[in-house]
Amino acid sequence: MNKALVVIFTTIGLDAVGIGLIFPILPRLIAEVTHAGNVAAYIGIMTSLYAAMQFICAPVLGALSDRLGRRPVLLISMTGAAVNYLILAFAPHLWMLLIGRAVAGLTSANISVASAYITDISAEETRARRFGLFNATFGIGFIVGPVLGGILGDYWLRLPFIAAAVLNAGNLLLALLVLPESRKPSRERIDLAALNPLRPFRWLISMRGLLPIITVFFIFSGVGEVYGTCWALWGHDVFGWNGLWIGLSLGTYGACQALAQMFLPGPAVKLLGERVTILTGLAGTSLALAVMAFTTQPWMIFAVMPVFVLGGIGVPSLQSMATRVVSGEQQGQFQGLLASVVSLSSIVAPLGFSSFYFVVQQQWPGAIWLSAIAVYAITVPIVLGLSIPRMRTAEAA
């Protein structure tokens, strides 16, 4: 692997670590600066703010990288990430934390630029493998992040941010020294219409039959936000978990999901078909969430993790099914629309789940997981009613 790819993969891994490390310590950090007893609403606002900045800035950074080149945009993003974590490490007020999370969302939007960089320097026959490594690196970072944040946060609440700042500064130095430009800067004017993050949604009207499957994607992605928004609060409220145990539980969940998505969807689809595989994933996740809602024993959470594995087979199966909704000529537009839908759900869902947790925190914190099951249930009749073209056989292909 060449030096440029090492820098790019390191950047992606650190982005994922930065997203995950804040989850175990965010409730305590907000409580420290606000002196509030119930911080659920603040967590929802900060999570949605991060997602909103990512949603708005991703097309802007992508357009700038086409115009100025990938390297300067990546270097600016790395610098912003390092500075942001320093701000979070020493911020004494809530408004400073909000600014820090906004900057974090802006800089994490460089994932789209990193993807473009890999495309620039990769031959067609190597792109699939390299993007596989790209996704694996992000997944590993997202597993490591909560564990690292929990361990360091137990020593000092601000220490995870200092560690993240140092790591990002080191990566910035590495990029300055060894990262070459992958694309010659263009002199063409930037298409301002391309900077509109809502632009892909216009294709929702032109692509027939898309609304049901887009709705399922939106709900799946939105419910996925409940873990990052409420897991740490719930673990502390129900079990009195410290940062280490919150980080370990989140890391274990992330590892189970990653393993499931790597190894199970293919065999499951061959055995059950896509529709039944999606519903099986829903059933497994709902069963695990029900256990979490009612249990008062922390060991049960780790015991039920293998059941969560079933949830990991649902989304890849849905993605496979979705690719046959549109023609090959529309796949690029369709994938852009899905990315926008996922981003939009990441803005809306944390506000809803955090508000619900704010209401039930004192009486029954576990009710948050039943709310997730209830939202998931909306997708069952939609999935059953989806009209999707059959998979082509190898001979027909």
H/E order of the elements? Answer: HHHHHHHHHHHHHHHHHHH
For the residues shown, what is the average pLDDT? 83
As residue ranges, the low-confidence spans are 391-397
Structure annotation, total helices: 19
What general form does the structure show?
globular
Helical percent range? Answer: over 70%
Rg over C-alpha atoms, rounded to the nearest angstrom:
21 Å
Backbone structural class = mainly alpha
Q: How far apart are the termini?
A: 34 Å
| Oligomeric assembly | single chain
Portion of residues in beta strands equals: under 5%
Q: How many strands?
A: 0
Major sheet summary line: none
Tags for this entry?
mainly alpha; disordered C terminus; 397 residues; globular
Report on this model:
The chain has about 400 residues and is an all-alpha fold. It has helices at about 5-20, 25-35, 40-70, 70-90, 95-110, 110-120, 125-155, 160-180, 205, 210-240, 245-265, 265-270, 275-295, 300-305, 305-310, 315-320, 330-360, 365-375, 380-385. It is globular.
Brief sketch in words of this structure:
The protein has 19 helices and no strands. The protein has helices at 3-21, 26-34, 40-68, 70-90, 94-108, 111-121, 124-155, 159-178, 203-206, 211-239, 243-263, 265-272, 274-294, 298-303, 305-308, 314-322, 331-360, 367-377, 379-385. Helix 1 runs antiparallel to helix 6 (111-121) and helix 3 (40-68) runs antiparallel to helix 4 (70-90).
